[in-house]
Amino acid sequence: MTHPAYSAIVEQFIKLDAPYDDITKHDLLALGITTEMIPDLIATILDEKYYEDYDSYEGFPHLYAYIALGQLKTPASIDGLILGVKKWAHTDWFEWFCEEMPDIFGAIGPMAIPQLIELLQDKSLTFDARTCALHYLLPISVAYPEERDRCVAALVSELEKFEDNDPEINGYIVMYLVADYKAIEAVPIIEAAYAADRVDPAFIGDWEDVRVEFGLIPARTTPRQNYLGVDRSRMLGEQASLFDDYAKTAAKRSENVAAKKKAKRKQEKKARQKNRRK
Q1: Is residue 50 part of a domain?
Q2: Where is the composition biased (Basic residues) (predicted)?
């Protein structure tokens, strides 16, 4: 049953400025959001009508519902956020989940870590949904440095299953361990995963690249392959800079979308816009 005050609050949502510029800008709890409204907020983020067309609904109330759930900071609200990730992360809204949701989880803090680890471990989910967990754990570990080792341990634990994991998942985990967490302690399991040929090199490079990044060898001794058809050194530099950005802004924006998936999403978005103009 819908909370009596919820509809009025949704009307206030759509009168606010779009939430893209600063995810922490609006105190939605001040509008009257309470824990009793969590079922309504979850119903909003799961409602398919809000995701069908970017231009269909004024004010994007479902996006404010995500923000409100994050500001409530309860186990039930975190579960609601995870439900939204599971259902929509693989859709055209993938970039929003990568760019805005890390701020939400960074503000929630350590209490979200167990659910995020479960999200990463759930092999029944799409690649996009599982890797969202990596996006969201990072800002928590930066805002709460004491949680860094806990987050690294979760990534290492998942990488230990490299034989059963898809090489893309392994590659994404390795990318975070190397470029963001600088997790030199993870070298043994990373080496084992590469030795078993279970790491997609498109995300961070090959084992020789990893050793160079960790300072284990001074430079490559073999020619570097262009795994993605892009300048890998530039791509890695952008990835590595994310950690510095988070450290400076205490969990501001994550842009850790793999280059090949980001390019695909942009192409699809342009196609949709072109079709609308017809």
Answers
A1: no
A2: 259-278
